[in-house]
Amino acid sequence: MSYPHMLEPLDLGFTTLKNRVLMGSMHTGLEEEKGGFDKLAAFFAERARGGVGLIVTGGISPNFRGRLAPHSSQLSFPWQVSRHRKITDAVHHEGGKICMQLLHAGRYGYHPFSVSASKIKAPINPFKPSKLSVRQIKGTVKDYASSAKLAQKAGYDGVEVMGSEGYLLNQFLCNRTNKRTDEYGGEIEARAKFPLEVVRAIREVVGPEFIIIFRLSMLDLVEGGNDWQEVVQLAKWLEQAGVTIINTGIGWHEARIPTIATSVPRAAFAFITERMRKEVSVPLVATNRINTPEVAEGILASGQADMVSMARPLLADAEFVNKAARGEGEDINICIGCNQGCLDHTFSLKRATCLVNPFACYETELKLEPTASGKRVAVVGAGPAGMSSACYAAERGFSVTLFEQSDTLGGQFNLASKIPGKEEFKASLDYFRQRLNRLGVEVKLGCCADADTLKAFDHVLLATGVTPRVPKLDGVDHKKVVTYQQVLGGEVEVGQRVALMGAGGIGFDMGEFLSEAHESATLHPKVWLKQWGVDPEYTQGGGLTERDSTAFESARQITLLQRKTTKPGKGLGKTTGWIHRTVLKDRGVTMMSGVEYLKVDDQGLHIHHDGQDKVLEVDHVVLCTGQESNRGLVPELEAAQIPYILVGGAELAAELDAKRAIRQAAEVVASLN
């Protein structure tokens, strides 16, 4: 398939972008690491080499109070220019263009020096901000302009002013957080005064031939957010103030509506950019859950936007644009929207990376060096760890054979793809199938490798995965008791009353799978918007409306139990766990902590809870009690004195952790000689 609209140049008047792909801003954590700017240079250079039209950096504060955290990056002094020059030189050397994002955290600043429009604490931050005085506002405007000028001196092609996601400028723009009674509060004209002063001040110091992007919150998705007329007025004022491009911002960080998780339909919010395109003439950028060239092309071809923003998809595959241009879209390593390696890391103050691409943000540290040894590598098991190991080994130049005892590739990815909202895992499976074929890996399905088979290989990697852990419990062999693998594999037909033993990631996945009463809304954007209370007609502030009650229907009566006394789901992903907890709560799933399991019999599951013995009269008890490493081949290999390396779940049977498995595969293969 060709992608003429995505690959079409965009003339900005004083400069031309080579295509319509903008690499959206991502904070990687390298900004604060020792030697991090050298690593950032390599990271951005690889994306520029991969064909991206315009790159935007992670957020850099214009002053100290605007930092995201005490040691976060800011650009305020001439001596800081040289390290940014490393980034811009590297990107320009690869023929790319790059803008620096100017981000003032406002009340999202995780430190006691945070400031905001008003003295109102954010629900996701323990620190209460101080109210900016008029004098401080004027000083902050100057700080923005100064940082933009320094960015220009550092070689950036422009700046993006962050005015969405609930950061400082967004806090001034909305009644939710702006309770001021002076010249910067009240009606929209006053609330917009500060952001517009920032844009005008930047344009004045950088001149006409410098890109200014404004990230405008087009859907606040919070109570007290702006209405559509106010958002349109803001866009028009920004155009008059001299912005080059308006980028779409969706939702505040404190919004209780998912915006970029894997359960969000692809391009679910492109409709709002399309609506704004009728109001202004500057180029507009569509954002959120655009992860394939087909989706990007569809948005641009239909006139919904002038550009598309992809952040995490370019973590997943730096060659995204080049592969699309070569007609190799099926070779793109698709972002599955899991948030595990990127946002979960960022909000835990760790370096960002990517579940499906462990080399992301480790370009200078994790490398696959070519080998001409001609050695043979056997990989046993074709789950995430096995498929990754086989691909990485073939990329290095080894002769690779992949053994899988079942008749399909994928392992745990096959199971994950069946969970409502996790359909993106199918795209990863398609990628691996294509990659294995392209690399010439010999794949043997329905083949149980043994010592006789493996003795002919120079390296043996055991990626045999995990098996469900069966707890010691009276009646665990009762016909009512089944494992999560049996359920997802379609081996049993689960009844209407179900007890789920285990409230970790598997338990919550099973809760969503068994409670889903309709086809997954992830496949139907309009249905999904109704379920989460997003109003495409924008009849109320923030774009909110009442949630569709049909979303709360459950196909079964489900009880989710755990031995731990902590809140069920506490260990789920930092940025996505609340979504899973909300879904099960809405569907009426009963959650119980501090449970002692006694036995299973014809009556059901016997437990001790809150000082009482109870019986849950259920049709089935589904074991979601963790996994054990599948090492059945190990004794045979050791008896035959065949060396092996355990990879993924075979090495460590923790929660289903494809991120760890794929990264370990890369590290193991990189170390082979």
Automatic annotation (TrEMBL):
<keyword id="KW-0479">Metal-binding</keyword>
<keyword id="KW-0411">Iron-sulfur</keyword>
<dbReference type="InterPro" id="IPR051793">
    <property type="entry name" value="NADH:flavin_oxidoreductase"/>
</dbReference>
<dbReference type="InterPro" id="IPR023753">
    <property type="entry name" value="FAD/NAD-binding_dom"/>
</dbReference>
<keyword id="KW-0560">Oxidoreductase</keyword>
<dbReference type="InterPro" id="IPR001155">
    <property type="entry name" value="OxRdtase_FMN_N"/>
</dbReference>
<keyword id="KW-0408">Iron</keyword>
<dbReference type="GO" id="GO:0046872">
    <property type="term" value="F:metal ion binding"/>
</dbReference>
<keyword id="KW-0288">FMN</keyword>
<comment type="similarity">
    <text>In the N-terminal section; belongs to the NADH:flavin oxidoreductase/NADH oxidase family.</text>
</comment>
<dbReference type="GO" id="GO:0033543">
    <property type="term" value="P:fatty acid beta-oxidation, unsaturated, even number, reductase/isomerase pathway"/>
</dbReference>
<dbReference type="GO" id="GO:0010181">
    <property type="term" value="F:FMN binding"/>
</dbReference>
<dbReference type="Pfam" id="PF00724">
    <property type="entry name" value="Oxidored_FMN"/>
</dbReference>
<keyword id="KW-0285">Flavoprotein</keyword>
<dbReference type="Pfam" id="PF07992">
    <property type="entry name" value="Pyr_redox_2"/>
</dbReference>
<protein>
    <submittedName>
        <fullName>2,4-dienoyl-CoA reductase</fullName>
    </submittedName>
</protein>
<feature type="domain" description="FAD/NAD(P)-binding">
    <location>
        <begin position="376"/>
        <end position="642"/>
    </location>
</feature>
<dbReference type="GO" id="GO:0051536">
    <property type="term" value="F:iron-sulfur cluster binding"/>
</dbReference>
<dbReference type="InterPro" id="IPR013785">
    <property type="entry name" value="Aldolase_TIM"/>
</dbReference>
<dbReference type="InterPro" id="IPR036188">
    <property type="entry name" value="FAD/NAD-bd_sf"/>
</dbReference>
<feature type="domain" description="NADH:flavin oxidoreductase/NADH oxidase N-terminal">
    <location>
        <begin position="7"/>
        <end position="327"/>
    </location>
</feature>
<dbReference type="GO" id="GO:0008670">
    <property type="term" value="F:2,4-dienoyl-CoA reductase (NADPH) activity"/>
</dbReference>
